[in-house]
Amino acid sequence: MNGGVRKTRGITKLLVILVFFAFAIVALLARGNGCCVVVQLAVLPRSVPAVSPWDAPPPASHPSGKTPTTSTGARAAAASEKSEAVAASSSSEEEIPARPYAADSEWNIQWESIARSLNDTGIVRVGLLNFDSSEVARWRITLPAADVRAVSLAPAADAVTWDALYPGWVDEDGNRSSCPSLPDPDPPLHDYDVVAVKLPCRRQGWSRDVRRLHLQLSAAKLALHGGSSSVTPNDKAGMVLILSEPKCVPLPNLFPCKHLASRHTHAWLYRPDAAYLRHRLSLPVGSCQLAVPSLRLTPRSAIGRSRQAYATVLHSADAYVCGAIALARSIRDSGSTRDLVALVDAENVGAEQRAALAAAGWQVRPSPRIRNPRAAGGAYNEWNYSKFRLWQLTDYDTVVFLDADLLVLGNMDFLFESGAAPELSATVNSGARFNSGVMVLEPSNCTFEMLMAGVHDIDSYNGGDQGYLNEVFTWWHRLPRRANFLKYVWAEGDRAAQARALGAEEVHAVHYLGIKPWLCYRDYDCNWNVPELRRFASDEAHARWWAVHDRIEPAELRDRFCALGKGQVAMLEQHRRDAAMASASDGHWNRTITDPRRLVNQS
Questions:
Q1: What gap in Å lies between CA 202 and CA 105, rounded to an integer?
Q2: What's CA 71's distance to the chain center, in Å?
Q3: Average confidence (pLDDT) over 249-256
Q4: Full-model pTM
Q5: Most buried of 34, 156, 430, 545, CB within 10 angstroms?
């Protein structure tokens, strides 16, 4: 009995040894055709990363109702690819570049969104920015036939802040200010079919994040075939896939919606125009330098001018009709022959006023006004989101918007030349924000829809269109201040410099803040009589407006639509009495009023 047991145990041991040697022989025979790696995994346990993108269970369902497959279309093939990828990631000597901006990038990628975005696109080369090693490996599984490369990008220096990119002041006269530099991707060139970038998205201030700007500019550089400075007859650009949390949208004037091929949840796939990208990349990285260094007009062919226009917006009552009539006169006086388009809310600007605008030279287009949902009823900013309708002027490639309380003193057609001033170009208002009184924009219905989609969610710092647009177009481009010269002084000592600028013909357009010239007596700027408004007072600017007023033709336009109402005259007289009681030191209140409009209302 015991002998039988011992014999049985001996046979068992022999079988175990034979099995072991059999596996070893298979491993030796298989070496060279790649399967030995799988055998070793089966026989000799080895360590694998505790967390792997392939350990996660597959999605429960696909939007189509079917379980998604990989590009091979078979689960068995996918399983084999996973095993091979694990082994490859362990044995490969390639160094995956560390993400330059890992902070705020730790959000889960929905890989099925990427697969849907890149379906049947014939991709051969893929460049990746800001992905970790496990994500790079997953990319290679998602696109097994493609040459997938992780691109190195050094992070921006700590000193490169948004304030450094968008300073409140630069040397505009000589344009000698410089911008901080952002490192270029390495290697910079590979003629990628797709450049994919994963963007950080912090909870607050995400739209003014140097990291997001740097990554998007780098993706644009990588997408250009031949490099960002090369121009070839067959100028091409690869696709750009931007991955970002849905609330943190890509830069709308670097990757505009008109170039958007598809969007799936957090994946935006763009087919950019190479010339468009190349021009954007030639611009200063922020408002630290002028986007248009010269204000001199270069004689050019009239070809293309039919696709360019100046535009203004009138959405409430008739208070700005006189200003718009004078604006049209001033544009024509400057020598410009570009189209003039006035977007007018027909229900709130009367037929007689619309006819007067047309007689002044404006193409009057009906434009239903848009309410600001965050404004109080009757407030000054209740309807100023009507400015968004400028993006619906799609029969033009470029529109220069001018507020109706501006006056053009010098030809501004340089803003149209060869796309020198791209969307969105404007003058600085304060700090990192622009003033929306003069803007260069590129009409697009999808941009209009984007603006409308955010009216309930995007906060405006000043409660109006200017604050809203500053949150959307954070990557704006700086125009010289004299393209939108604000009638405003920070301190009394600045008045002499302001007067010199206006007298030396250095200013191209004056923006009349405070009480408007046509609502004052022509004798002097009535902002002097109100202590809170004196910073808006300028006798020189006031005189320039009235000189244009006197050239308005036909004369009945200025007589009828620039008249003073009795209520306005009463207010002006009260302000004069208040200034006299306070013995205001400027003494304007003591001047004799000769404006005949005052006499008309007293008769």
A1: 8
A2: 35
A3: 96
A4: 0.81
A5: 545
